[in-house]
Write the structure tokens for this entry.
Amino acid sequence: MGTIADSSLWERARRVLPGGVSSPVRSFRSVGGEPFFSDHGEGAFLYDISGRRYVDYVLSWGPLILGHAHPEVVEAVERAAGSGLTFGTPAPAEVELAELLVELVPSVEMVRFVSSGTEATMSAVRLARGATGRDRILKFDGCYHGHADSFLVKAGSGVATLGLPDSPGVPSALSALTSSVPFNDLEAVESVFGRFPGEIAAVIVEPVMGNVGLIEPAEGFLSGLRELTRAQGSLLVFDEVMTGFRVALGGAQERYGVDPDLTTLGKVVGGGLPVAALGGRRAIMEQLAPTGPVYQAGTLSGNPLGMAAGLAQLRVLERDRPHERLESLTGELVDGIVRAATERGLPVSGVHVGSMWGVFFTEGPVTDYAGAKQTDTEFFSTYFRECLKRGVFFAPSPFEAGFMSTAHRREHVEMTLNAVGESMDAALEG
Ligand code: KE4
């Protein structure tokens, strides 16, 4: 893991940053060892401050679908920066990016930009509550929608990774308004609607779960949610912060042909800069201030550099249409990892949707969070560290999705699979 240089920096980091990190998932706490400090990224690779190179499947937790420092994205940001970093007024780029989102995302007619996925989902819930006059929301066990109070109920990602109970600091009066049921369980959804008729403002869902590993929606699950919410007068919110532009250019709603009322976007939409967005049907979106009474605001919302990065990245995706090649290469990676585990007699379940992927070290299929929690976390920790030693950087948690970028080539996957086999052997030798 870390070198002396890292250690002194790591010691400094832990003195001034809780856990030495700016976000808990980066801490390596659940996998052991110290995180490396990055120096720079280049295409499919991340380089640490000691000069070690890693083929990167975390890709900053999803944003870098074109890989690190894509020249067209970097050039767009450099050009925008030369004109100023923020204006606090309307500017052309936010109109252009909003128009592009309306064009690409099937259900979106209007957009409000924010600066993080959490802000997008938090705003989506407030808008749904304001639009319906209802207070309750329904989410799914293991889904992670950022760290706003209402979502820290049976959440995934870092909450699952660190084995945290629902977070202290969230008033019980508020968390009581959030129901959470197993993913892929429409009957459980119906029973919550039966318990709270006319009280549920919104059902919010990751249409493909990416915060417990990766779990696909069962056939009919998403369309079932659409029918149930429509019948109950509740809004359906697709949290596409992770799936957006990645499982298809138009996101999961394009891939599965289900149109939500509201969509949250993040990660890819900002090209690596802090940009996220809330979008949806005009009649709902116009209830946001200043056209409507639901207040929502942000100093750096629509920031010109973020807009430039997002426009550049999405325009490359629109021009090059890499999704089929990305999905195929991701499939080669997952199939290779599953093959390596199976050859060694390890229980394993691997799945990918577009260029999001996940491997559980447990018998599959894994259809919900309870199933995901069966994965062998101890084996994963050793396997993760052995892969890192061999220059392969997977998410430092069994409860996260992996990604792939257009900068990854088959030779990178082949090198990865060699490292995976050796790492599994090392982990089995204990
Ligand atoms: P941010 O506030 O982290 O930008 O977005 C929150 C969020 C919302 N919805 C979904 C589906 C998400 O995956 C996320 C954030 N994902 C995590 C990784 N699993 C971000 C990494 C982190 O927490 O540092």
